[in-house]
Amino acid sequence: MVSDMVYGSGFAAALRYVGHMTAPRLPIEAYPYRHPLPTRWADNDMYGHINNVVYYSYFDTAVNALLIARGVLDPQQSSVIGLVVETGCQYFAPLSFPDLLSIGVGVERLGNSSVRYRLGVFRAGENTPAAQGFFVHVYVDSQTRRPVPLPQELRTVLAELVLEVPQEG
């Protein structure tokens, strides 16, 4: 296994350990939206792979790029914005600069004022995620920061992204 050659057998053992607590890994085709994303030199840590905290910026970038592209978010002008209240990630294989990535985005749960996104991080051309996670937005009034119901235009866009998979927990 390439990860054993680069990271030693401990990496494979760590992956086996987390295997019991992972949600089913979705193939890239399961995600209704895929955001292409190049890694950056600065994404690597001293161990030679993408640092764990960087994956959260990938999630944020992919979700917000989707919302902007679909015309339901203008970060400077929108009266309703999504604030991140919870996020998590599981790692299965190392990635590093200069990998090209595809971030799969889908919706697991659509609430009155919140949405739980499911995300997969794929090396370009691969079907199995190197990492997967979730990202919860609570939508609030941009001025008062109080929760508000999802605007209908946003709800319509998000409803098109609902995944047909078992939910975690």
Automatic annotation (TrEMBL):
<comment type="similarity">
    <text>Belongs to the 4-hydroxybenzoyl-CoA thioesterase family.</text>
</comment>
<keyword id="KW-0378">Hydrolase</keyword>
<protein>
    <submittedName>
        <fullName>Thioesterase</fullName>
    </submittedName>
</protein>
<dbReference type="GO" id="GO:0047617">
    <property type="term" value="F:fatty acyl-CoA hydrolase activity"/>
</dbReference>
<dbReference type="InterPro" id="IPR029069">
    <property type="entry name" value="HotDog_dom_sf"/>
</dbReference>
<dbReference type="InterPro" id="IPR050563">
    <property type="entry name" value="4-hydroxybenzoyl-CoA_TE"/>
</dbReference>
<dbReference type="Pfam" id="PF13279">
    <property type="entry name" value="4HBT_2"/>
</dbReference>
